[in-house]
Specification:
Helix content: 40-55%
Structural class: alpha+beta
Order of helices and strands: EHHHEEHEEH
Number of helices: 5
Radius of gyration: 17 Å
Largest sheet: 5 strands, mixed
Distance between the termini: 50 Å
Shape: globular
Strand content: 5-15%
Amino acid sequence: MKSASPPEPESPDIQLDHPSYFPGTYIENKDIRIAFYRELSEILSRAGDTGSGMQKIERLYASCRDRFGPLPAAAENLFNDTRFSLSLKPYYIEKLYRKNNKLMIAFSGDVPVKTIQDSAGSLLRYCNERDIPIRFISKTRLLAEVNKNFLNVFYPGTFHHSQDSKPGN
């Protein structure tokens, strides 16, 4: 069992309190909207490597823009969150969210401890190389805290449209 390779990482859940969806006023046909959501979801679940997944996201982004025009902020955020989630996938991060004006990173609890240690170490090195403060704050479940620079450095350009509103507000 020690020689068994770690399970394939899943895409983390990104929760950053900004609108992240396709507005009905942008893609009026519900079936087409659902098809775009499905395609993004499939990219995240099937992407074997980050590079090919990013290419697929960019093709879908271009297709959306070509069919419906410039994307509104909420749709831009949806694509950016998807890119960001794909970028974090190799680190076995389960969830990235805001709490008390801080960014929290929760690592997966469903993989071997050694895998989590290795991925947390890789993320720590990545952050240290870019002068991003990161602090591990939980012993029962690996949890880290980072500042907003993490968003801009880890995936540049992701949060230009960030707003503190949700769909329907």
